[in-house]
Design brief:
Blueprint: H1 13-23, E1 59-69, E2 74-81, E3 92-93, E4 96-98, H2 106-118, E5 125-130, E6 134-135, E7 140-149, E8 162-169, H3 170-173, E9 180-186, E10 189-198, E11 201-204, H4 205-218
């Protein structure tokens, strides 16, 4: 058995949880945010960074990958960042941000950020495990926390950070036929990245890369 989703079949929430709890964990490298951390292979390599390259002063961040259990189908909760932000303005993102000194773990940071950005209460969230850390071009090393969210969602968006919150079917995001390679020029450097266009939205860059990582971890092998 390869673990791949049969063609035309949506991943059930129960199967998703089983795979996540079996294949993910909350173990992280002890040197994760220390100088000299060696970049592991991952989607960041497609963004022009080299596996094995040593990091210096990586900025610690965490995001929540919230899979909402609607029983009939699971969805992933995403946000659109406001256009006035200095970094990543207008982009599609997961709730998340810097890991503060007072955060006990990347999980704690992700839950705090989800509450601050969209009003998602921790009591509705069941953490399932971490995806591999993801390095983005702005120097942040991001730890994605995969979690199951119990509806109903009563979101309260922070207008300084979030323009909109919306959901995309997990089945769409976990279908590799929807994972496309695109390229853009960033400051004179041509970079390749994953994109998952959905309706009028273009999910790309680090967010799409982490979703691609989720597919690879749970379904691709």
């Amino acid at each position: 058995m390869t673990g791949a989703i049969p063609t035309g079949q949506a991943p059930s929430t129960a199967d998703f949880v089983r795979r996540a709890t079996t294949r993910l964990s909350f173990d992280l490298p002890t040197d994760l945010f220390a100088d000299g951390y060696a970049v592991r292979p991952g989607d960041h390599v497609a963004e022009g960074l080299v596996a094995g390259e040593t990091l210096t002063r990586a900025k610690a961040a965490a995001v929540l990958v919230p899979v909402v259990d609607h029983r009939s189908e699971a969805t992933v909760l995403l946000t659109e960042r406001v256009a006035t932000l200095r970094a990543h303005s207008g982009q599609i993102a997961f709730p998340g941000g810097r890991i503060d000194p007072g955060d006990a773990s990347p999980l704690a940071a992700a839950l705090r950020e989800a509450w601050e950005e969209v009003g998602l209460v921790a009591e509705q969230v069941t953490p399932l495990g971490y995806l591999p850390p993801y390095l983005i071009g702005t120097g942040y090393l991001v730890v994605p926390t995969v979690a199951l969210v119990r509806p109903p969602l009563r979101l309260r968006l922070n207008p300084d950070e979030v323009a909109e919150a919306f959901e995309v079917p997990l089945a769409f995001l976990m279908d590799p036929r929807n994972h496309r390679r695109q390229s853009r020029d960033f400051g004179g450097t041509l970079r390749s990245f994953i994109a998952m266009p959905y309706a009028e939205r273009n999910i790309w860059g680090a967010t799409a890369g982490m979703l691609h990582s989720l597919h690879r971890q749970l379904y691709a092998s």
